[in-house]
Amino acid sequence: MSHLDSFLNGIYDSLQNKRDDQLDAPWEQKRAYLIEHLIPALGEFELPEGEAADFRPVLLESVELDEVIRERIEITTLGGLRMPVYIVKPKNMQHGEQKPAVVLWHGHGYGSRSLVGLMEDGSPKLETGKLSDNIALELARRGLVVMAPEVAGFGDRRLQRDRIQDPELKNSCYNLSAALFMTGKTTAGLRVYEALRAAEYLSTLEYVDANRIGNMGHSGGGTIASLSAALDPRVKASVVGIYPNTYRGSILAVRHCLCNYIPGIMLHAEMPDLLGLIAPKPLFIEAGIDDPIFPVATTREAIQALEQIYGELGISTKFDSHIFEGKHEISGVRSFDWMMNTLHAL
Predict the structure, then answer these.
(1) CB within 8 A of 112, min separation 6: which ones?
(2) pLDDT tens across 265-276, in order?
(3) Cross-strand pairs, 213
(4) I need a surface site. Which of 1, 155, 244, 261 has the fewest CB within 10 A?
(5) Whether the predicted model's global pTM rises above the 0.70 cut
């Protein structure tokens, strides 16, 4: 081990000891402490108020498929940003019916099209028989309305300079994150606050039951789903996949995209502490046993910590997990039905 490795491990150990002392408190006090420090660590983002809060939705596309209607709508989030979102709803909905809904977050790749059965160019994705071929369709088949937003920095929302200077670059995460770091903000924060706006918009749709909204995210989408669920009372249940771990065992042990980093967060929390902020709401975690960038050993540590949190709150039945045979990929074998059953039972 090099001197640098030892130096960093010494810092991590010291911070862990300090956190253990800071967080040795009743849950509500601990939760308030974590929220108090999470929000400034993400960066100060202001949600719009008054006229600026108007979503100004514009319908970009509407396609009637065999089982669902798929729409693409552009809405205003914050700071004048416009976000395209897919809305996928079952065709068998009755007039005046309201269904539970899910905000579905994509990870690194070509954006929201990957969640609705489309290739990057908008053509239909080849089916492989996996549940992950068209996650939005699978959830709609389970009686849910699905919103799949385009995350800032991906797909149609890459920086203009990246489109021009490096058109082969699949995302703007590095340049966006570097720019935001210099202003005291983070890409994670921007995405989380846009998630708050996305859930708010979803709750306004006449065919959505605003009291039964969940969210689901995998990999980078897991960052968004977990942190927004911690901050948003609209989100009543969450599936977080191929992301839950410890920072020390994943984000700091393997090269990851810059958008994963929240400066200073380990002064106050490890990842399981932040995942625990979702409690007392239902939470399901799924992870691939051979995931090379979120190693299963430290995923198990996170699961154990969450089992302890939910157990101490007397709500063990609201937490579940599935470690499946696979790598850094989406399973859905148990999580899709869990989301359906959980939201329908609310």
Answers:
(1) 84, 85, 86, 106, 148, 149, 150, 151, 154, 155
(2) 999 999 999 999
(3) 101, 235
(4) 1
(5) yes
